Amino acid sequence: MKAGITKSVMIVEEDPSYRALLRKILRSLNCNVVGESSGGDEAINLYERKKPDVVLLDILLPQKYGLEVLKKIRQQDPYQVVIMLTAESDQETVQGCIAAGATGYILKTDSANEIRDRIRKFLI
Length: 124
Fold this sequence. Notes:
This protein is of the alpha/beta class and 124 residues long. It has one domain (8-123): Rossmann fold. The chain has five helices and five strands. The chain has a five-stranded parallel β-sheet, with helices on both faces. Helix 1 (16-28) crosses helix 5 (112-123). The mean pLDDT is 90.
């Protein structure tokens, strides 16, 4: 990421400890976390209010499945950067995310360094 440029990021993740890890990684990348949500309906409302540069979106959420949230975001902004978070590395899950309009995905099973490197690629 270019020096002096701060990206706004919204985290949508049910697990509080994983949200904390993402927050820490994002701070190390000089990102501004503008909102956090643990559920799908709340995520859509938060997105509409905050309009972040990047959305980190868990696939499995209470209320609405993450892909439903992704589709709602895509309706509002087809160019929004949305990175899906998943523990599933099977080809069907990954292809489903990309087909639904995700910019990319992060495996929750990756190390913190691997997650940081993947996020960094989407911030440039």
